[in-house]
UniProtKB/TrEMBL annotation:
GO terms for molecular function: 3',5'-cyclic-GMP phosphodiesterase activity; metal ion binding. InterPro entries: HD/PDEase_dom, PDEase, PDEase_catalytic_dom, PDEase_catalytic_dom_sf, PDEase_CS. PROSITE patterns: PDEASE_I_1, PDEASE_I_2. Keywords: cGMP, Hydrolase, Metal-binding. Zn(2+) 2 binds at D311. This is Phosphodiesterase. Signal peptide: none annotated. Residues 71-92 have a biased composition (Polar residues). Gene3D superfamilies: 3'5'-cyclic nucleotide phosphodiesterase, catalytic domain. Residues 194-516 form the PDEase domain. The active site is at H270. The gene is LOC111126760. Its EC number is 3.1.4.-. Belongs to the cyclic nucleotide phosphodiesterase family. PDE9 subfamily.
Length: 534
């Protein structure tokens, strides 16, 4: 149903172009660049010319939709200047690119109405804040206002992020086209449908040395490109007999891994490389502990698939932030493991696509068990449940672990995926330490946003309080070592291959902390201060 507000008013501006009277008309939705091009056309100059307007008093007038209107008797004086020619082709190209980029930015602003949105949001925010200050508001109304303000802050944050990402994308297009794909992968849109089909990456022939190395906890995950990681994941599923067990079409397996890769965001830590890292550690533990002797291939398939999917579409902000900020995920899942529930939902959304469903050829009862098992394992990766799961596992170790008991076996599988999810410090220092830097970067991003939004900030995430040694020492001593020592009671080989590296890592970080806390000699105080600041 139409109304008067749907009629777009136009603005008329009168111009004096070298003594010739002209007038232009434009709507309020036009951008500055549109007005510039309109005047350039009226003046008979190129769109790249510099154009300025002066009123009858000689004051310059800004070229934008909000410029004051004038009359035919007091037109704006138009002055134009064509860009000077240059013999340097690269400078010319750069100038043209700048002009084009300016037009693109103007069109972007026009299409998405960024300025109008910011004005509208600011108006709504001011109205809500005034509303909260009024006396007599009921408690329920106050809570509703707080929720609305939080939603508006999210809109502002997302709008700013999209605009910054757009500018960054434009700049990187000019300097390095290959980096554009990396920036575009930061999009918050859910990409459940496969964006590319096989074969999109070459078939790699793995050497026997690589095949054996892949089974080791010391495997260096930093040496592999994304396409190589996809091929290694394929190899793991084939080598464990999972393709035969579930009658998986090899092309469907490729599509599944491609779709999984597309649904991991480009976070500093929770990204596709972390997914590969966790899955490879599970593959290593299967071989190290000979898990096929105590589990079925169906169980192994559930373990491996859960590892592949365990952090799908992770936004880079943990459950504490989701709950405190009252995000859509926290509301949807009632503050109960919102991220882990979301990872499960995305995983089975991918599997609901026939092109990616690696379990399409199993019967209904088998799929029901697979779905329940994967969901159970992904939900177990919520560290808020760590104490509960470990206490349950310790009880089942006494007097003797019963591999034939389903509840006991489920608990073991939950502990195994937990071990793999936080197993970075089991690896050699040159492999594990970069992960600490990645994790701290993600923590700092979250704490910065929490400070901006007035939310509680965890000390271990605050860039002003945490250091690499303090971040790791407590975690290794009180979480990692006790957990792996408990698993080693079932599989003694873990003590030498995993627990011992953890003890070495603990000692290394304690030495690092001690060296950082020692006062420097007087002659080296300035040098020490510089190092600390870095």
């Amino acid at each position: 149903m139409g109304n008067a507000s749907s009629i777009e008013p136009t603005k008329t501006i009168f111009l004096d172009i070298d003594g010739k009277k002209e007038k232009i008309m434009f709507s309020r939705h036009c951008g500055s660049r549109d007005i510039h091009d309109l005047i350039a056309h009226a003046a008979g100059v190129s769109r790249y010319a510099e154009i300025s307007l002066k009123d009858s008093a000689g004051a310059f007038v800004s070229l934008n939709p909000t410029m004051p209107i004038n009359t035919q008797s007091s037109p704006y004086k138009v002055t134009s200047k064509e860009p000077s020619p240059t013999t340097d082709s690269s400078n010319g190209d750069g100038e043209v690119f700048t002009q084009v980029l300016s037009q693109v930015a103007s069109q972007f602003n026009k299409v998405f109405k960024v300025e109008e949105m910011k004005t509208d949001i600011a108006t709504r925010l001011s109205a809500l804040e005034r509303k909260m200050e009024l006396e007599g508001l009921k408690a329920v109304e106050i809570e509703k206002c707080k929720r609305d303000i939080s939603d508006i802050k999210d809109q502002i944050w997302n709008a700013q992020k999209k605009f910054v990402d757009f500018n960054r994308l434009s700049n990187e297009t000019h300097t390095d086209s290959s980096e554009t794909q990396n920036v575009s992968s930061l999009s918050d849109e859910r990409k459940i449908s496969l964006k590319r089909d096989v074969p999109s990456y070459p078939k790699y022939t793995l050497s026997q040395e690589t095949i054996e190395y892949l089974k080791q906890p010391t495997f260096d995950i930093w040496h592999w490109e994304p396409n190589e990681m996809l091929s290694l994941l394929e190899h793991m599923f084939h080598e464990l007999g999972l393709v035969a067990e579930f009658n998986i079409n090899p092309i469907t397996l490729k599509r599944f891994f491609l779709c999984v890769q597309e649904n991991y965001r480009n976070n500093p830590f929770h990204n596709f490389r972390h997914c590969f890292c966790v899955t490879q550690m599970m593959y290593g533990m299967i071989h190290l502990c000979h898990l096929w002797e105590v589990m079925t291939r169906e169980d192994l398939g559930i373990l491996m698939t859960a590892c592949v999917c365990h952090d799908l579409d992770h936004p880079g902000y943990n459950n504490t932030y989701q709950i405190n900020a009252r995000t859509e995920l926290a509301i949807r899942y009632n503050d109960i493991s919102p991220l882990e529930n979301h990872h499960c939902a995305v995983a089975f959304k991918i599997l609901s696509n026939p092109e990616c469903n690696i379990f399409a050829n199993v019967d209904k009862d088998t799929f029901k068990r697979i779905r329940a098992g994967i969901t159970m394992l992904i939900l177990a990766t919520d560290m808020a449940r760590h104490g509960e799961i470990m206490d349950n596992f310790k009880m089942k170790l006494e007097p003797e672990f019963d591999y034939k008991n389903k509840d006991s076996l489920d608990t073991l599988k939950m502990v195994l995926i937990k071990c793999c999810d936080i197993s970075n410090e089991v690896r050699p220092m040159e492999v594990s330490e970069p992960w600490v830097d990645c994790l701290l970067e993600e923590y700092f991003n979250q704490s910065d946003r929490e400070k901006m939004e007035g939310l509680p900030v965890a000390p271990f995430m605050d860039r002003d309080k945490v250091t690499k040694p303090t971040a790791q020492i407590g975690f290794i001593k009180f979480v990692l070592i006790p957990m792996f020592e408990t698993v080693a009671k079932l599989f003694p080989v873990i003590d030498s291959t995993m627990v011992e590296p953890l003890r070495i890592a603990r000692d290394r970080y304690e030495d690092m902390k001690e060296k950082n806390s020692m006062p420097p000699p007087p002659s080296q105080s300035n040098k020490k201060k510089t190092v600390t600041e870095k």
